[in-house]
């Protein structure tokens, strides 16, 4: 059924007014957020911050405890008299990364070479008389071959590199090798505004190298793999675009 013209115009007016009101409310809300200080969020379940999925980590083999009647100590319990350092799969230890490397290299090379060859041609199967008669003046076949070359090369190169990294990250024992060495792996992510910093560490350590405070230096990690980088707005600006990367690969100059 077709509505009267007045009713249709009224509906359009109401719709337009509702849209303008919503826009004004949204603008007021954005303005209030910009002017007012940030407010704390309500208390939530901490499990929602980690992940909605259950965390799966390497775990040691379950130990069957034997009953000990009339004993104050439980088998396998950690006490003040036991070693509190990480030693089993799933235990956590702290890795101290203190990298202060510097390298200075300077190489200079110079090379020069000069060579000369002169060969005389005394006879050419009787052709020298024909050449003398055919050519004006006093032509000569000696020297018959004369070569000379000179080459020089100079090169200079220098490297001045300094790296300083001070980080601390917790790692988990993921495996124990047959000789007793332990494989560790850990990661850490820190997000500030729109920039995410990620730290990864892995390698193989000896139980004897773990300090009494359950820490280990990165210099005592064999096959160490340490990665520190980030992604976000700042990293995107510093990274070359795909077009430039492709151009650098295909250009011959």
Question: How would you explain this protein's 3D organization?
Answer:
This protein has 253 residues and is α+β, with helices and mostly antiparallel strands. Among the domains are: 92-104 and 163-250, no CATH class; 105-158, no CATH class. It has helices at 5-35, 47-50, 127-134, 233-238, 242-250; strands at 92-119, 145-176, 182-192, 195-205, 215-217, 222-232. It has a six-stranded mixed sheet. It is elongated.
Which tags fit this structure?
single chain; 253 residues; alpha+beta; 6-stranded mixed β-sheet; 38% strand
What is the spatial order of strands in the main beta sheet? 5-1-2-3-4-6
Secondary structure class reads alpha+beta
Put simply, the count of helices is: 5
Strand fraction band? 35-45%
Distance between the amino and carboxyl termini? 74 Å
Low-confidence stretches: none
How confident is the prediction overall: mean pLDDT? 76
**Helix amount:** 10-25%
* Elements, N to C (H/E): HHEHEEEEEHH
Number of strands: 6
Largest sheet: 6 strands, mixed
- What is the CA-atom radius of gyration, in angstroms? 40 Å
Which shape, going by the Cα principal axes? elongated
Compact description:
The chain has 253 residues and is of the alpha+beta class.
């Amino acid at each position: 059924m077709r509505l009267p013209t007045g009713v249709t115009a009224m509906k359009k007016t109401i719709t337009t007014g509702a849209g303008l009101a919503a826009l004004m409310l949204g603008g007021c809300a954005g303005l209030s957020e910009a002017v007012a200080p940030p407010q704390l969020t309500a208390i939530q379940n901490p499990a929602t911050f980690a992940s909605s999925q259950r965390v799966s980590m390497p775990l040691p083999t379950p130990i069957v405890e034997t009953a000990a009647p009339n004993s104050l100590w439980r088998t396998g319990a950690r006490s003040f008299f036991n070693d509190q350092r990480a030693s089993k799969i799933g235990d956590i230890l702290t890795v101290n990364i203190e990298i202060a490397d510097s390298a200075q290299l300077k190489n200079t090379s110079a090379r020069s070479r000069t060579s000369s060859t002169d060969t005389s041609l005394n006879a050419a199967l009787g052709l020298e008389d024909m050449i003398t008669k055919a050519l004006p003046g006093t032509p000569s076949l000696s020297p018959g071959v004369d070569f000379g070359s000179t080459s020089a090369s100079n090169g200079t190169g220098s490297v001045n590199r300094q790296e300083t990294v001070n980080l601390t990250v917790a790692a988990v024992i993921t495996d124990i090798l047959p000789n007793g060495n332990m494989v560790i792996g850990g990661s850490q992510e820190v997000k500030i505004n729109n920039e995410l910093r990620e730290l990864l560490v892995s390698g193989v350590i000896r139980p004897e190298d773990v300090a009494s405070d359950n820490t280990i230096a990165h210099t005592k990690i064999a096959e160490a793999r340490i990665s520190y980088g980030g992604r976000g707005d700042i990293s995107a600006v510093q990274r070359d675009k795909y077009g430039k990367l492709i151009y650098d690969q295909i250009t011959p100059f």
